[in-house]
Amino acid sequence: MRRNEARRSVLVAARLALAACLAVTSACTPDGGRRDESAEVPSYAKPPSRFADVLSQSGDRAIKADRHSLALSARSTSARVTDDLGQGAVLRDGNVKVTAHSGGPGSGRTAAKGVVVFRDAAAGTDVAQQVVAPEAVRIFYVAKGPGAPTSFDTTVTGATVSAAHGGVVLKAGGRTVGAIPPPWAYDATGRLVPARYEVHGSTVRLVVEHRGAGITYPVVADPLLTVGPGGRLIGAQLLGGVFEYAAVAAITWGVVKFDANGCLTLSTFLSCALHPLEHDWGNPALPKAPQVDAKMPGLVGVRLPDARQKLNTLGLRNIKLVDDTGQGRTVLEPKNWVVAAQSPAEGTTVHANTELTLRVRKPSDGAGTSGTVPGVVCMNLQEAQDKLRAAGYRTGSRDHTGKHRRQLVDRNWLVVRQEPAAGTTAPPGTQVVMEVVKYGEPTGASGCGS
């Protein structure tokens, strides 16, 4: 009897560990090895909180595309979206075909590999469909203002849908064939917005309570549909008991937290696990830094070892080194390098965990009084500022429409022009002024998608 109970305990533990592994990363297998990328199980622990992240996540996937569709396929599964919203997103697993309709008719455009965007598919709302893996698609609802609806319907054909533990289970022929994990929604600042599913017949209704106080638009809501082995596993988790689901959620949270903070390596895991209070969980796998404020010293022209010593004396250790010549060289012997530019600038108040960028050169490279201005047109304003400041330039912005609107939330604005232009030679410290429009507004001659 005890032997059977022990066996059941081991099986349950293994099942939970596997579920957590699959929930966090698509590279796990039951034996701990690596999977063929074509058989990838989608990550669903936490979706992107900004639409810009959706585009960047899709950019490195090999998507087969013709003029009207984007698709990925593996041995028995495939996922496809098209530029016709009325056709829906299609998932196949063997003989099972599941189609999710999020509206229509409507014509969309490819925004990145694997992503089609349908502008104003509903009142004040854009819809994006993304091929995530051969067995998963995402349907993003992007509410652009308080006038957008608070509920969005996705009609599923080819499978029955039922609510379970905050998610939705897909069944065909009496067996679980896939699932829709619990939804997530974020506003433009990354704030979590309450969201839930309601099931009405074959329709899955996503309710997003985005009209609350303090919400910054756009709000991005993310239903993920998945079939195949990953979808069936998620469905089994959703149908499991409350204890099992809570255990899986706890394990998933722990693995996500450790992974996000650099603690899943042989050299860091034990230290993070045994001494959690000694680590700063906002700064991956590094010892907790003292809570200090300091004035950034002037480091231009200083040898790198001396510059580091000055920063360390102030309690500042989060230092990023960048080859100022653009050659991407690695600093192997610090005494052979000199600081050519710094960010933040001298006199700026910084904190213990502030990332400090030092652009360095070898004396044989010359004085380095000039650099090349990076191109930031078609980037959102926040990303553009980060890129320019990392290159040693100051930034400014103004409304391209001439209405003199202030840029309160930088991620809501798109850069359509910059001065000096990309590729211009200019010394570090030069101010680069960016002209911006809000997403959804005309972008003029820039050619940027909005």
Automatic annotation (TrEMBL):
Signal peptide as annotated in the record: 1-19
Region described as Disordered: 29-51
UniProt keyword list: Signal
Entries under SMART domains matching the protein: PASTA
Family matches, as InterPro entries: PASTA_dom
Entry keyword annotation includes Signal: yes
Sequence ranges assigned to domain PASTA in this UniProt record: 288-362, 368-438
Protein's name in the database: PASTA domain-containing protein
Higher taxonomy: Bacteria, Bacillati, Actinomycetota, Actinomycetes, Micromonosporales
